[in-house]
Specification:
This protein is of the alpha/beta class. Helices cover 28% and strands 17% of the residues.
């Protein structure tokens, strides 16, 4: 049984306001982080845990002010080390629900090594990765997810680095849960975060977030009102991948590639549309979904992958329990009197 399932429940029903901090929120007006904060405050009461059993961990960046703005225990760490700190928090305190607020720079640049290894180990934590494709706190340098050719303060003629695809990085690290949302869909964000919280293992939710100051409208090709219905595919497990303003388009597997088909044209019907399976253990199709991007194909939003696999923290707990039961040394006195000992008179 997952340790997370034994987290102490609250004696009284909690509401969103119980998780609202008394600290002034200092993000810029219009920043997508406000919507993320609101969504988290809605999800935490649904989990039913005591407030004392939540822990929010962060590194450095705009996203990393999150622990101040949630009325739970929190740890504001150093740049790129949020995932390492959270690993220690969860393994030594398995009865906590641990959440990590991080950014594309914090986790995929200086913290890249810690990011891939927390995913690989499948420690039961929840990672919220704010992806605004820029370094916001340090005033507009390009990040590992900045689109190639984008002009920033450190790339005045345009970046010459190909960006990371977050989903491929997660799945390449043997990730068991990956979801993607946009900050303009707060209801979807809350639904996905709740699914992430229920997952036993490392959950990664990539949030395509707008930085209104240094990368305004960076996700406009996805979120602009006049095109969002044509450029967003909302995934639901067990349901066909249909999208479009008139819900007349679908995703089909044709000659080994994912292609957009028009229902009612060229003989295509709903039977030709792929049905989403987030529990498929082989990630091949999920990787293909995660690589889709407008305008050729819509971007996939929602839970893309969610599979069961043993967690690092559960296995460590099992080893500790085994050692306690089978090792002859039960206390410090046993240790001091073990091995070659002698008495001095």
């Amino acid at each position: 049984m997952a340790i997370e399932n034994s987290i102490e429940k609250a004696k009284e029903e909690l509401v969103k306001q119980d998780f609202v901090s008394d600290q002034m929120v200092k993000w810029c007006p219009g920043c997508g982080a406000h919507a993320i904060l609101s969504s988290v405050a809605k999800v935490f009461p649904k989990m039913g845990y005591k407030k004392e059993n939540f822990c929010m961990v962060s590194g450095i960046g705009c996203s990393s002010r999150f622990p101040y703005y949630v009325n739970t225990y929190g740890f504001h760490g150093i740049h790129g080390r949020a995932n390492a700190i959270a690993s220690g928090v969860k393994v030594t305190n398995p009865g906590l629900s641990v959440w990590i607020a991080t950014g594309d720079g914090d986790s995929m640049a200086i913290g890249g090594n810690h990011f891939i290894h927390i995913v690989r180990r499948n420690i039961d934590v929840n990672i919220m990765l704010f992806n605004n494709q820029i370094y916001g706190l340090t005033k507009g340098q390009y990040s590992p997810t900045t689109p190639m050719g984008y002009k920033t303060k450190t790339s005045p003629q345009g970046t010459v680095e190909p960006p990371f695809n977050t989903a491929n990085l997660v799945m390449g690290s043997r990730g068991t849960f990956f979801a993607r949302v946009v900050d303009t869909r707060p209801s979807l964000m809350s639904e996905v975060m709740y699914e992430a919280a229920k997952h036993d293992g490392t959950s990664v939710v990539e949030i395509l977030q707008n930085c209104i100051i240094f990368a305004d409208k960076t996700h406009d090709s996805i979120t602009a009102k006049d095109i969002k219905d044509e450029h967003q595919l909302l995934l639901k497990h067990g349901e066909p991948m249909i999208f479009g303003k008139n819900m007349d388009k679908g995703i089909a597997l044709i000659n080994g590639f994912l292609e957009v088909i028009h229902l009612g044209k060229d003989g295509y019907t709903e039977k030709d549309v792929l049905v989403h399976d987030q529990y498929r253990y082989n990630p091949g199709l999920q990787r293909m979904l995660a690589r889709m991007y407008p305008p050729e194909r819509p971007i996939a939003l929602g839970v893309i992958r969610s599979v069961k696999s043993p967690t690092y923290d559960d296995m460590v707990e099992e080893q500790i329990a085994y050692a306690k039961e089978h090792e002859p040394i039960k206390c410090v006195d046993d240790l001091l009197q073990s091995g070659d000992t002698w008495e001095i008179k």
